[in-house]
Amino acid sequence: MGAFEKLREKFFGEKSEELFDESASDYVEINTPELGSKTKVIVKPFVIHEFQDIKPAIDSLREGYTIGLVNIRPLKEKDIIELKRAINKLKKTCDVVGGDIAGFGEDWIVITPSFVEVHRHPTAPSLPSRPGSGSSDII
User: Which candidate, 14, 82, 93, 22, places its Cα nearest to that of 48?
Assistant: First the structure.
């Protein structure tokens, strides 16, 4: 009998072997997800001709793995009030899912899920006036 067995017998008594053997055989097996299965992010274009056309863009945004590039030009040329309504709906959906929305150019909007942030340039500093162009010249 080894030194550890003597100590175990003193502390736990004669049933110590049963105690340790039982705990070794009782366990719960947990299934872990495969590490190789990653969900890809999709960049998907959408064209908005009518207010109802935003539904696929909103549904894709809610799924969480789609960055939407939304062309708003057809609706802008057709009905500016419906365009504002559509953009407000997209903004509210982005707020709900924790995503981001930004316009680029005059005809495009990007909508992103929560793990994507749109980079915005800080406001550009005003350029100094050219010499000889007015009273603000420094001599």
Answer: 82
Q: Tell me if residue 103 falls in helix, strand or coil.
A: strand
Under 8 Å between Cβ of 68 and 60: yes
Phi-psi region of 105 (alpha: psi -120 to 50; beta: other; left: phi over 0): left
Into how many domains does the chain fold?
1
Tell whether 93 is covered by a domain: yes
Residue 2: its pLDDT value, please?
72
Q: Name the amino acid, one letter, at 111.
A: I
pLDDT for 95-108, tens place per residue? 999 999 999 899 99
DSSP state of 60: H
Rounded Cα distance between 50 and 76, Å, is 10
**Domain around 78:** 42-112
pTM of the full predicted structure? 0.60
| CATH code (residue 51) | 3.30.110.150
